[in-house]
Amino acid sequence: MMFAKGFGSMLKIPVLCLALSLLSPAAACGAGPDQMQTEGSWVLGADSRWYYCGADGAFKTGWIEVSGKYYYLYEDGHCAMGEVTPDGYRVDENGAWYEVKKEILGVTFSVPARFVPAGVSGNGWTASKDALASLKGKLEAAFGKERLLAIGNDGVEYRERQTEAGKSKTTYLGLYKDYGTNGYRLDIRVRLEPDSIDEKRAATYDYAVFAALLSSVSSSPDQLAEAIVSSWQDQNTYGVSRTAYVAVGDCEVKFEAGDGYGKYFIRPHS
User: Fold this and answer.
1) CA-to-CA dists, residue 250 to 116, 171, 173, angstroms
2) Are strands 251-257 and 262-268 parallel, antiparallel or unpaired?
3) Which of 1, 48, 104, 244 is in the most buried spot, having the most CB atoms within 10 Å?
4) Beta strands in the chain (DSSP E)
5) Which of 187, 207, 192 is nearest to 264 (CA)?
6) Tens digit of pLDDT per residue, the chain (270 long)?
7) Helix spans in the chain (H)
8) CA–CA dist 171, 149 (Å, integer)
9) Residue 53 and residue 68 in contact, taking contact as beta carbons nearer than 8 Å
10) In the chain, what's the furthest Cα-to-Cα distance?
11) Where does the signal sequence lie (predicted)?
12) In which element (H, E) is residue 171 found?
C-alpha cells in the first residue's frame, strides 16, 4: 500500500484515509488532541476540528480507545472536547474522558457529569451508593448508636438512631426525590460549618453528609453547597429566593422555611 507523510510529523497515513478525507472536513494528519498516536491516526480537519482515521482507513464515530484513553466522536466524526458528551460523560480540552472525584472524610465520591434528575431509572444516588455506605460506616464508628445515615429508594436521611421513649427521631439532613420537579428537596436542621475538620466534632460530620448528598446528584456540588450555606446562614450571596428558582451551577434552587428547619428545592434547569 502507498503511504504519504503526515502534517507536522513523519507519521505515515494510508492513502485510502487521505482519499476519504477529501470527502470530509478532515484534511491533514498529525499528533492528536493529546499528542498520542496508535494504530490509527488523528486527522485535523479544514474546520479546525479533530477526526480519527482508523487503521482500516475509515473515519470513526462514537466512543474509541486510543493509547488507553477514551474519546467521543460525533456522527460527523469530529472529536468532542471540553464538554459533556450526549450520553453524559465529561471530556477534557484534549477530548479525553475523565471522572471528577471528591474526597469527603477520606471517602471518594464520583461526581456525576451532569445533574441527575429524580425521575431517572434507579436512585438519583445509585452511583454513590458504595461511597454513602462507607460514610455511614464512619458515622457509626464515630457516634455509635447516636446517628444514622439511612439510604432508601426515594430519600437519604441523616438522623438520630435512637431516642427516648415517646420522642420522635430528629432528622438533621434529608434529601428526598421530588418527582413533580424531577429534582430533590433538601431538609436542613443543623448549622453547616464548611471549615470544620475535627473528626471528633459532630459539625464535621454534619457538613460531610451535606457535601456527600450534593455530590451524589449535582455536577457542581461545591457551588451548590456554597449557595445553600450562604442562604442558610443569612448571607445569601447567590440570591436564593423563596419566590422563584435561582440558577446555581447545573441546577436551580428555591428556599422554603419549615417548622424549625429549612427546605431547599433543587431541580434541573427549566
Assistant:
1) 10, 27, 22
2) antiparallel
3) 104
4) 3-5, 12-14, 26-30, 41-45, 50-53, 62-66, 69-73, 83-84, 90-91, 100-104, 107-111, 147-151, 155-160, 171-178, 183-188, 246-248, 251-257, 262-268
5) 187
6) 222 323 233 233 333 344 444 444 443 444 455 444 446 899 999 999 999 999 888 999 999 999 889 999 999 999 999 988 888 788 999 999 988 899 999 999 999 888 999 987 555 577 788 999 999 999 999 988 788 999 988 999 999 876 566 566 889 999 999 999 999 999 999 999 999 988 889 999 999 999 999 999 999 999 999 999 999 988 899 999 999 999 999 999 999 998 889 999 999 998
7) 15-21, 129-143, 202-217, 221-232
8) 10
9) no
10) 86
11) 1-30
12) strand 171-178
Q: Name the 3-class secondary structure at 2.
A: coil
> Which of 263, 248, 255, 256 has its CA nearest to residue 115?
248
DSSP SS3 for 179: coil
Using CA atoms, how far apart are residues 100 and 87, in angstroms rounded to an integer?
16
Task: Sketch the domain layout of the chain as residue ranges.
Answer: 40-91, 101-161+169-268
CA-closest candidate to residue 169, choices 177, 161, 157: 161
User: Please, what is the Cα angle at 224 between 84 and 239, to 5 degrees?
Assistant: 120
User: Cα–Cα distance between 9 and 19 in angstroms, integer?
Assistant: 19
Looking at residue 236, its amino acid is N
- Cell output for 42: 488523528
Q: Report residue 29 as a C-alpha cell.
A: 494528519
Q: How far apart are the first and last CA of the chain?
A: 55
